[in-house]
Each structure stands twice: as C-alpha cells, then as structure tokens.
Amino acid sequence: MSILFGDYRISLDQSEEGATLNFVSHAHSDHIGGVKRNRKVICSDITRDLVTARLGHPVNYIDTPKGISLVNSGHMLGSRQLCVDLDSGERVVYTGDYQVQESAVAEKIEIPKSDVLIMDSTYPFPNVTFDERDEVVTSIQHYISSKSEVGCILFGAYSMGKGQELVNICNDIGVVPAVDKSMAIINGVYMKYGINLQYTVSDFESKIDDGHFSNQVWIVSMNRMNFVRRLVAEAGKRIFTAVATGFSMTRKFDTDVQFSLSDHADFKQALYYIEESEPSIIYTRGGMAETFAKNLRAEGYRASPLLGKQSVLDAAVNHP
Ligand SMILES: [Zn+2]
For residues 197 and 217, is the Cβ–Cβ distance under 8 A? Predict the structure, then answer.
C-alpha cells in the first residue's frame, strides 16, 4: 500500500513495486524492506543511524519533501509517524508502530490531527489491556533485586528498543547488566543520541568457569537465550530466565517469568489516539487489520482494513 503525493508514490515500511519513495517509521527489521532494496528513504536521523548500524551499510536517505512531516510515535528511539498534507487540504497520517505510554528510552508520542488515519493493528482485542508502564518496570526491578542475590538472571529481549529499555531499568536500581555484541552496537547509537546506558559487553561464547558472571543480569537477543542458558547450565550456576514483551499478554514463553512490557498501544490506547486525532476514516494495516477494523466499527468508528497494494490516496478520495 502506498500514498500518492505529487510525483511520489510513498510506500509504508515495506518494499513495494512501483514505489519511488519509502517511508521507514523505525528501525525494526520487519520495517526496513525498502532500505534493503536501496530505495530512496525518508526517516528520522536516528532511524537512519540505527538501520546503518544494523545493516552495516549506509541508507539511501533523502530530506523529507515539503508537505510531508514526521512526528514521534513513542514506539522506540527515532520512531516516527508520517503526516502527508495533500493539495486537497486533507491530511493522511500513518502511525507505523506506536505507543501511547511513555518509555524512558524513546521520545514521547505526538498525536496529530488527521482526516485519513492508517493505524497499526498489533493489539486489536478490547480485552487485552496492558498494566501501567511504571508498575511493570517496578515489578521487573523487584525481580532483579530479589533473584540476583542467589543467581544469574537472563533476560531475552529484542536487541533494538526493548534491550536498551531493560538496560535503563537495571541502571535505575544500580545494576550494570551484560549485553551481547549485537545489542551493544545498537546501545552505541542510543548513547550518541543522549540516552545514557551503563553496561558491559560479552560474547557469551567463553565457558563460564569462574565467578566473573556470578549473580549478574544478562540481556541477550531472544534467539540466543537457549544457547546462553545451556552455557550457564554447564557451568553449574543457578539461573533465572525472563522475557519482557507485550506478547506476554497473549502467549506463554519458555521462561521462569514474563513481563508485559509493551512498545505498542493496546486497544484502549488506540481509542484514545483516535479521539485525539479525530479522523473521518480509519484504515487498519498489519496481520490483524481485519479484526482491528471490525472491533473499531463495533465502537462506532468508520474503519476498514487496508489490504494488498491499494493506494491510500485512491482510498481517501473515494472514501469507500
Ligand atoms: Zn517495531
């Protein structure tokens, strides 16, 4: 799906045939398909640097054209929403991944007014409600404080966004965690943009045969948890495992505990966003787009899923 604007056909967070410009809302891997195809990209400076760090080569980045603006989405450092002011006077806003609750390691969300709103649909269910972020953070800190007296704590987290938030949560109670190398590269970009993070770096490859890693908090990418867990077991250490993700509300992870620390809005927060933005029509996108649209219609909103290669401008003009 794309937005037609002047000479541009702007694809949204994905590589799309015929697109001349690619908006990258943030640096998570499922949003940078257009970058990989070397498309011209508009994004924040922070996202540009994070994507460059992740891919190991520069981004084909251009200045944001007149009539288009990028505003904070609160999802992770550098994440932005796309606002396109059409010649017709209508404004189209695409949220990308967004979060209403403020995180210590991301810019606070701004909610722009819109006529046509394209929303992410990660959490489409009215019965899924996240706890207050402060409460979740406090629970994590209590867990770290109590368990680190008797063993290691292994946190699995996305290496970008959640990993840095966990480092910050540890630092707040005087704990300096160890992170893996891929997370450390991303930490470096966060620090460049003023997020102070205290951590050590480990390859987690060497055998754990001395007291060096005792009673430490480790934060590793999700896909490395089993490897590190095995390493610790071989060393005969007591280890506690945890994840911190919003998906803790909807699935069970193979860990001792799971914390619902989400970087997305839940359904109630989505309704708050809509009330502030006041769109006349909402398009939903993502894997749960149809469910989200249906649940929004049940709340009285004009909403439909945006599927396939439908142009948002065509949709906006025709108001189906
Ligand atoms: Zn994301």
Answer: no
Cα-Cα-Cα-Cα dihedral sign, residues 293, 269, 26, 81: positive
Residue entry with tokens 């505990």: 257
List, for residues 30-60, the tens digit of each pLDDT value: 898 878 777 799 999 999 999 999 988 888 8
Residues with CB under 5 A from ligand 1 (ion): 28, 97
Q: How far is the CA of 142 from the centre of ligand 1 (A)?
A: 27
Taking the centre of ligand 1 as the mean of its atom positions, its distance from the CA of residue 148, in whole angstroms, is 30
Does 319 have pLDDT greater than 90?
no
Ligand 1 centroid to residue 44 C-alpha, Å: 14
How far apart CA 117 and CA 120 sit, in angstroms, is 10
Question: What is the set of domains in the chain, with CATH numbers?
Answer: 2-127+264-318 (3.60.15.10), 133-259 (3.40.50.12650)
Distance of CA 37 to the CA centre of its chain: 22
Q: Which helix (H) or strand (E) holds 271?
A: helix 267-277
Please give the structure tokens belonging to residue 195: 């997020």
In the predicted structure, residue 314 carries a pLDDT above the cut 70: no
Mean pLDDT, range 271-297, rounded to an integer? 96
* Start-end of H helices in 38-180: 45-55, 133-147, 162-171
Predicted local confidence at residue 249, as pLDDT: 84
Distance 97 CA to ligand 1 centre (A): 5
CA-angle at 73, arms to 266 and 295, nearest 5°: 30
Token pair belonging to 56: 């190991």
What is the C-alpha radius of gyration for the chain, rounded to an integer number of angstroms? Answer: 21
Q: Render pLDDT for 200-234 as a digit per residue (tens, 0 to 9).
A: 988 776 655 555 555 589 998 888 888 888 877 77
User: Cα–Cα distance between 13 and 23 in angstroms, integer?
Assistant: 6
Query: How many A from CA of 79 to the centre of ligand 1?
Result: 8
**Ligand 1 mean position, distance from CA 26 (Å):** 7
The predicted-structure confidence for 127-172, as pLDDT tens digits, reads as follows 999 989 999 999 999 999 999 888 889 999 998 999 999 999 999 9
